[in-house]
Amino acid sequence: MDTKKVFQTFRAPHSALSYVPAGRKDGHFYIVDNTDNMSKREQGQKTEFWDDYGAWKKPSCPKTLFVQDKDRVVTVVLRDNKYCVERTIKSKRVYVPLEPQPEQADVLVMHQTYQTLNASNTCKRRITWFGNTPENFSYLPKDRALIEYIGKFPGAQFHGNVKNAQKNQKYIKTKEKVKAELKSELKHKSAKQVEKKMNSEHDNDFDKQRDDKQLMNFKYNLNKKDKPNSNAADHIIAVEEMVKNNGCVQRVCHVQGLNHPVITLYNNQQICDIKRFCCKEGGEILGLDKTFNLGDFHVTPTVFKDRSVLRRTNMEHPICFGPTFIHTNSSADTYKIFMHHIADRLTDNEIDNLVIGTDEELAFKTAIHRCFSGATHVLCTRHLKNNTLKYMEEHSGCTLKERQNICGLIYDKNGITESMDDDTLNVRVDNVRSLLVKPENQRFLNYFEDRLLPLLKEHIITPFRQGKIESNWTSNNSESANHVLKAAVNWKICDLPKFIESWQEIVDNESKERLRAIRGMGNFKVARPFEHHLVDVSTWSMMTGDQQNNRMKRFRNDKGRFHANEIRSSNGQRTVIKTPSAGKKPNQQKRKRAERSRTPSCKRRVLCD
Asked: Shortest CA distance to 410 belongs to which of 451, 466, 439?
């Protein structure tokens, strides 16, 4: 339609649509709301006039200027900063300046966009809207746009980048508003979760994702955008910078012969907690276990239980992360770099009281022997049992029932691992030997005598007799910590800097949650030896910042108050209060050992008579 008809259309009563409706639009026009596009133009962003026709070619966007001259509208052009009227004199185009010159605010600006459909050169559309509307043109709205369709629509087509039409659907552009909503949801959810949410909330296909491939592409681009660097070398540079400004990245060590540095993560409070809960007689076990599939690296965290608080749901001490090691090589020399660094923060007496629990990995055993020579090293019976079953299956002639019976004699209740004295141990070992007399079991018998039994004696039976571990100790705490790490990265491969940030968030969050216990809030409650730190939450709110910090500092450094006569069982599971006066007669002054048992003289005479 010409300009005059465009003005008449806008001047006539009408209502604006949010979007052009779906369906064929040949020879039709629509007035749509242009408010969002006005905001986008002010911010330098692309505008959107959505329809279901597919992809349009790059548009041409001319603009036309108008002024009101009495009762008529005159088209003008800007030449040499002057508004002129175009004339044709003797077949030549001439621009005649207006007299007097209008003000810029009195000039109407009409924008028009011409586009051709990618699928057909005969299908076109024109979009008209106004940028500046003077008072003389107040009937022309700035927040409306007129969209005209010309030609015949050939039908929906595949996108130009489609390689296999059978595996793809015909292309219809997704609304920018829908894209923004999808990207916002994908920041914190998986593609599958967003797909379920959008399908449950929207019935209209144009108000949700095109398919799951689109969601996965959005998710990939979001993750790529969040990555601070692009390759492994850049990741290492970023981690080296973290040593300067991150309190948890303590050391990045380059070792000759290794392509990737080894990284040590911990904060000062974690070292303090190890001293409080692990480096004392009857303390917690410091567990180590290597984690896989977190990225192009291995992660070996240490874990222990915080005895200062109890989880309200099960009344057990929570599992906490200690110093963590990131590496690509799993040799003993690599582990020694990490363990030497931690051992230097402990005294010899603290190391002597330390109990370290791992699986059967030889590199762990060698590094612990070198770096923590005075510590007690215990092994996980679950790993040993699984390795025993696997060896028997591959190198013995035992049936499944016989293999299970032999493992039961070794690891189950009243088995070799629970032998409290040498006589019981010898009898139970002989019972196992009696089941391995067949020639086809000779290889496993040698394995049992030469490898398994020495491991059991040194790393399970002896610590169990000394009361340093419970019977059949397992590394379940380490496995739980590994699960937390994988859940933090949503069970996906993670870049090194991003993983370190996730690890730090986990450590900081669990520390803050445990501190809430001293004011009676949160998921934990203060354990009995630390109850003197409890503060009512209303009293806490009245404290100054320095008072609160001092209170938290005392709590985090306290090893707990125990009764002077408190006695703890050898396995650390039971405590009782010793009563020195128990068993004495009333008003007895002497010790029980020194006091004689006397018979009154009257009773003695009766007995004699």
From this structure: 451
